[in-house]
Amino acid sequence: MKEIKYPQLLITVAFGVIIWFIPPPAGVTPEAWHLLAIFLSTILGIIMKAASMGTMSMIAITLVALSGVLAPGNPGKSITLALSSFGDKVIWLIGISFFIARGFIKTGLGKRIAYIFIRIFGKSSLGLAYGLGLADLVLAPAVPSNTARGGGIIYPIMKSMAMNFGSMPEDPATHRKLGGYLTLSSYNMNLITSSLFLTGTASNPMCQKFAKNMGIDITWMSWFAAALVPAALSVIAVPYVLYKIYPPELKSTGDAPAMAAEKLKEMGPVHKNEWLMLLAFVILLVLWITGDLFGIDATTTALIGLVFLLLSQVLDWEDVKSEKGAWDTIVWFSALVMMASFLNSLGFIPWFSELIKRQVGGMQWLVAFPIIVLVYFYSHYIFASATAHVAAMYSAFLAVGISVGIPGTLLALVLGFCGGIFGTLTHYGHGPAPVFFGSTYVELKDWWKCGFLLSIVYIILWMGIGAGWWKVLGIW
Questions:
Q1: Which H or E run includes 176?
Q2: I need a labelling partner for 71 at 20 to 30 A (CA). Which of 215, 244, 361, 476 fits?
Q3: Is there a contact between 203 and 387 (Cβ–Cβ < 8 Å)?
Q4: How far apart are CA 414 and CA 469, in angstroms?
Q5: Quick check: helix, strand or coil at residue 340?
Q6: Cα–Cα distances in Å, from 268 out to 65, 257, 272, 402?
Q7: What is the DSSP string of 400-433?
């Protein structure tokens, strides 16, 4: 019960009750309106941290079942529909990928990859930033929790490197020596890799699911192909931009490769389980990339990878049972997807998009497109969770954009890409943010200032140069 914040929970309940008893507008069914009340109050509770995301989600599922909004007068069907998303393949894709990610941590392969890149690139502070970022890039396709990837693998190594060069968390006078720069660079590289791969962060498959509800098919490969050029440019540009706007006092880190080599020596030669983990990683990548050709679904690929790791004993069933992050994600993911999907099928999202369309009638889609994307991007200031943001706004913004003529696949992908990079704005904007900010290396004002400046860089690279790339691909 320690996780419950009762004042915030009371505000959440009051908010939901008020919406529930407001008469639904013309064109909206009572069932859709009441589901909206439960959905919005759940999102508010998550934003206010009234309880954990899992607790809020279980409350929501219970209220949906009790209220019968999905099947009035049929309690049996109501609970079945409330639990329907637990069988959704997209939800299990992200859950199973968490289990696979455990293999990188358990075997030590994730750390080994990071140290290898540091040994190659770490002679300068800029090179060190690129080395840590490239390690994140290699891990991202099969480690869907960017919090586990950034906070569990990259962050400890980054902090260790900074401290070895005299940049100590407990000494503010040394923060700008190296730690501050590496903190912001590593965090932002994590966001870029989150946007590059469909399996890069947990909210991406949610976007895929919502787009599918509107008849837009996004595959692992189509997402990657569209993100490739703007993400590659971001990987190149962001550490350098931060090097200019938030420069480290220490420019040369010539000892870093030797430190990394020493860590690799301590780890010893690559052992059998690391080789098996690497083989599983290659199998996953190949099948995700070529799955469309052979008719193998992305979730089936994830299952193949997990079974391989279990049979090879890289993981055991205790590892799967103890992976709390995966089971937590499956629960809240299911609840939010269920409510957002039924808001669409019950007619609320189509009604809302038609309402907005009437307000912006006559606007050319080339004008509407950047407006929708920018509003969606910068509204992240009010969200402490990318998942909550996607659940609350993705479907509605996608529907509105399609209604004014924006190519559906284009908008679905761009809004999806925002789900990673908009985390740059604040110190609470994405899962890894509290971990990196908690290092104390970067002051709040500097985090927000650099975040805003980098948001402009991202918009130029993704909306500007990216738009040209998407034209080449035939997306618009």
A1: none
A2: 215
A3: yes
A4: 12
A5: helix
A6: 54, 16, 12, 55
A7: HHHHTT--HHHHHHHHHHHHHHGGGGSTTSSTTH
